[in-house]
Specification:
This protein is mainly alpha-helical and 128 residues long. The chain is built from 5 helices and 3 strands, in the order E-E-E-H-H-H-H-H.
Length: 128
């Protein structure tokens, strides 16, 4: 896998392309973002690479949505494994703001990770 810093259009922080080798392109401006945001962006693109969910800019919206959701789930699990969620819950840490401090991630991702954990544990969500 290759990581390349480049100038991307405003509004696009990163993108990934299949290989060989698979490549993640990160906008140079991401280096000025808070560490939490950098980790989230890079993990999301790594989620695309690990789950092989690439798509073209002209792909149907449903295909894009599926690929983005799968990459997001992979990234969430990469950043915060089930054992880390279980440890936080065992300590009584359940608020997204507190999880954000604990896991050093943006609060919306912490909320999403907790929801994913709870959904998959209850059997409500299949996870391809």
């Amino acid at each position: 896998m290759r990581l390349t810093f480049c100038d991307l259009p405003e509004g696009i922080e990163a993108l990934s392309r299949p290989g060989p080798p698979p490549t993640i392109y990160l906008a140079r401006r991401v280096l000025r973002y808070p560490r939490r945001q950098q980790r989230a962006i890079l993990a999301h693109e790594l989620g695309h690479v690990l789950s092989m969910t690439f798509y073209s800019p002209r792909a149907h919206w449903a295909d894009r949505a599926w690929a983005e959701a799968r990459a997001r789930r992979r990234a969430l699990r990469l950043l915060v494994p089930d054992t880390a969620v279980e440890a936080a819950l065992a300590q009584g840490i359940t608020e997204p703001w507190a999880l954000a401090e604990l896991w050093d991630l943006p609060e919306p991702l912490c909320r999403a990770r907790l929801e994913l954990y709870l959904r998959t544990r209850s059997g409500d969500a299949a996870d391809p």
